[in-house]
């Protein structure tokens, strides 16, 4: 199966637009995942048994909600959140609409990554901070986040890569982006060239994200 370069050139405006929509969706979803998922992950860790903000009831509720959302396949989540999407952005289609479902999927995913990263910290470091009278906020700001920053950066990289996959899936319901281009031109019109090009773009994009994440992680790792 060959690649028709002339055909690719003709569709370049559509490809560029689709890639821009993918970046738009991922950027919005990532920001929301960081803003909400990071505090959720910290709460999941600090409210657990034996920690300085122990609250088993709150921990159980947050854990249940996070696990419930994570257990729903993304394609089902896309459909289930259509009423909420319409309420927020006014339409169930387009990159803005897809960002709602992407954010909903990314928040619990990143929260669990943050929790896991914090659990890797030596408990002695936390106990030492408590012993010298550090407040919970000081422990979070000056101990937990600095100690876990390398692992959290790696978690951000993993979250972005997952969002790339989810954003491609959003094309099935008219979410825009590379996935939508592949469905409209590649699948419905049996255009193998576009199918190959979109797959190559996504592979290269993921490789760039992984490389950048690894580099940043190594730069901030003082060990």
TrEMBL record:
TM regions (residue ranges): 22-45, 57-90, 96-114, 152-173, 194-213
ABC transmembrane type-1 domain boundaries: 19-212
Record keyword Transmembrane present: yes
Compartments reported by the entry: Cell membrane
Membrane topology: Multi-pass membrane protein
InterPro entries for the chain: AA_ABC_Transporter_Permease, MetI-like, MetI-like_sf
Keywords: Cell membrane, Membrane, Transmembrane, Transmembrane helix, Transport
SUPFAM superfamilies assigned: MetI-like
Domain of life: Bacteria
Entry's family note: Belongs to the binding-protein-dependent transport system permease family.
Name the UniProt record assigns to this protein: D-methionine transport system permease protein
Lineage, highest ranks first: Bacteria, Bacillati, Bacillota, Bacilli, Bacillales
């Amino acid at each position: 199966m060959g690649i028709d370069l002339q055909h690719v050139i003709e569709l370049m405006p559509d490809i560029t637009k689709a890639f821009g929509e993918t970046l738009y969706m991922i950027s919005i979803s990532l920001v929301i995942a960081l803003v909400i998922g990071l505090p959720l992950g910290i709460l999941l860790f600090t409210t657990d048994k034996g920690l300085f903000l122990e609250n088993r009831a709150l921990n159980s509720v947050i854990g249940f909600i996070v696990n419930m959302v994570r257990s729903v396949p993304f394609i089902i989540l896309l459909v289930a959140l259509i009423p909420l999407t319409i309420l927020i952005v006014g339409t169930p289609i387009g990159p803005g609409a897809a960002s709602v479902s992407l954010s909903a999927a990314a928040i619990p995913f990143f929260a669990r990554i943050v929790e896991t990263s914090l659990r890797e910290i030596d408990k002695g470091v936390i106990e030492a901070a408590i012993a010298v009278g550090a407040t919970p906020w000081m422990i979070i700001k000056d101990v937990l986040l600095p100690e876990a920053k390398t692992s959290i950066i790696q978690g951000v990289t993993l979250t972005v890569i997952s969002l790339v996959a989810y954003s491609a899936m959003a094309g099935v319901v008219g979410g825009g982006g590379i996935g939508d281009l592949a469905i409209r031109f590649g699948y419905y019109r049996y255009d193998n060239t576009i199918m190959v090009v979109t797959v190559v773009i996504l592979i290269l994009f993921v490789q760039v994200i992984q490389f950048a994440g690894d580099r940043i992680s190594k730069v901030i790792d003082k060990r």
